Amino acid sequence: MNRERPKIAIIDPNTLSVLGLKAILQNVMPIMTVDTFGSFSELQANKPEQYFHYFVAMNVVLQNRTFFQANRRKTIVLTLSLDSASQLNEFHSLCINVPEKELIRSLLAIQQHGHPQGKNMPELPQALQQKILTDREIEVMSLIVQGYINKEIADRLNIGLATVVTHRKNIMDKLGMKSVSALTIYAVMHGYVDINKI
């Protein structure tokens, strides 16, 4: 396994689910390479042992249970229901039938549970380790990802509304992000916000 760029495999015949999950995973774990497969046979033809984790549709797991049982610590089953009765007990599960914010929160929780303080993960590239934002921008970002609106942020920090809007624009520009979801991932991954506060 290449320790420099660990790989994640998504195995799911649903192309739209695969593309959406791939985009989100690349935001949550920018140091990972994400490969996608429409079937288990495609995965098997591409050295499945090289993957750090498998994100797999439940029907694929059920049809190939022996393989995934042997790799259950690396397997995350993609489900359509939050009901624990409809999930496979011996595997980690991820419900993909939820709003984007909840899905990102679940992915971050899985990542933090499996790799606390980045355990067993390669270091982030130098550019991602640097402190890019000012202390005030970090405060504003923290409140944004916790769901506060601009007026509430201004009141909490005792600054003008226009100043909040300027900080918000600067944060997005500096980080090259276009959505609050991407900002949430950045804030949690860098320890600026506790996952339980989003």
The gyration radius over C-alpha positions equals 19 Å
- Extended strand count: 5
N/C terminus separation: 34 Å
Beta-strand share of residues: 5-15%
Biggest sheet character? 5 strands, parallel
Strand order of the largest sheet: 2-1-3-4-5
Q: What average pLDDT do the residues reach? A: 83
Question: What does this protein look like?
Answer:
The chain has 10 helices and 5 strands, in the order βαβαβααββαααααα. The chain has helices spanning 15-28, 40-44, 58-63, 65-70, 100-114, 126-129, 135-145, 150-157, 161-175, 180-189; strands at residues 7-11, 33-37, 51-57, 75-79, 92-95. Strands 2-1-3-4-5 form a 5-stranded parallel sheet. Helix 5 (100-114) runs parallel beside helix 10 (180-189), helix 7 (135-145) packs across helix 10 (180-189) and helix 8 (150-157) packs across helix 9 (161-175). The mean pLDDT is 83.
Give a brief description:
The protein is an alpha/beta fold and 198 residues long. Helices cover 47% and strands 13% of the residues. Helix 7 packs across helix 10 (180-189) and helix 8 (150-157) packs across helix 9 (161-175).
Please give the structural blueprint.
Elements: E1 7-11, H1 15-28, E2 33-37, H2 40-44, E3 51-57, H3 58-63, H4 65-70, E4 75-79, E5 92-95, H5 100-114, H6 126-129, H7 135-145, H8 150-157, H9 161-175, H10 180-189
Parallel strand pairs: 1-2, 1-3, 3-4, 4-5
Helix pairs in contact: 5-10, 7-9, 7-10, 8-9
Please name the defining characteristics of this protein:
single chain, 198 residues, alpha/beta, five-stranded parallel β-sheet, 10 helices, 5 strands, 47% helix, elongated
